[in-house]
Specification:
Chain lengths: 116, 264
Amino acid sequence: MDFPILISGEQLQSSAIRSEPAQHIEHFFEGDSRQAQLRTNADRKTWRLTYQNLIGEEAMRLRAFFEGLAVEEEFSFTDPWTGTAYPNCRISNPRLQMACDKDGRFSAQLEIEHAR
Amino acid sequence: MPANPIRFPALDTGILAHLPVELSIEKMTRATRFPDGSLLFAANEARTRYSWLLRYENLNPQEWERMLDFIAATQRGAASFTFYDPIGNLLAHSSNLEDSVWLAPPGLTVDPIVEIGQPNAFILTNPTAQPLALSQSISLAGPFTTCFSIRAKWAGGANFSLGLSDAVQSASVPRTAVSWARHHVRLISSGAPETRMASIVVPPTTQIIVAAPQLEIAASPGAPLETGSQSGVFSNSWLVQKSFDSQSVAPGAHSITLRIESVR
């Protein structure tokens, strides 16, 4: 499935946050020693997307995309900072939060995770 | 008949919820994350949890009474009830008019057609001498105002009708489709109807292209939401909160917040 685009033709609004999580698991031992075990995946990334003032059609497009994804299903997402396409992404948690305000405008939040 | 006898109350306007409405959709399943960061999901156990936050402001005494009766009927949240997504589409398979949830009488053909800029469009053809209707019925209990809408077009212009009915009343509006436009019909129900039937009536020897049908509890059409086998009718829903805090902001004006959840 293709990640939905807004009526502006863009994938997201400017308030997105890119996060690059730590790549290791920590083990602590008696005697205060610490061991960091690197994950073999060296390119984990997440993008926290926040949308404001969406019109209903944009919000419903996001919702239909999320509801249509199988829990294990991956999709391609283009990093807005670099233009790099990441083909193995999924929605983190996986959760979509949305709200419709008194004027019928929608806001939405979701987080995308590069899965591999 | 709806699966659950406890009815969510309608406001005097026939609407289900005040805006703003918040909705959280969360997919749930067991997952194992491996040291390389990859995840293994138990996909066959996947469920989706829907959580709504509804804020009611300035309910009048009659609406307030119905709300209290509803909360009491659920035994303050213990019992489940049928809930209708206030920002969803109550029709199933809105993107596939060939599915069997849509009833097409003999003679009426429904075929997919590729339309640029309008996914999941279908051409309805009625070659007979009688008007024929493509319809879908849903369980919807209560005196809600419903709105059935659809996008339609026919380059040379085509007449058709949109119909919406419950057990007692019906509404039908004649429309003319030319270029893509959204058309709707509204039904203000009274009493306690249990179902609604939405229909697209195609006149004799007429073709029309349609897409994005939507049925919602509203006075006017909202943004269309594509649905698959699951519609916006949640037959097993419950109140999440453990206390119900109500406020009377003025004489005869009451406010309350409800948190509702459903898993499927």
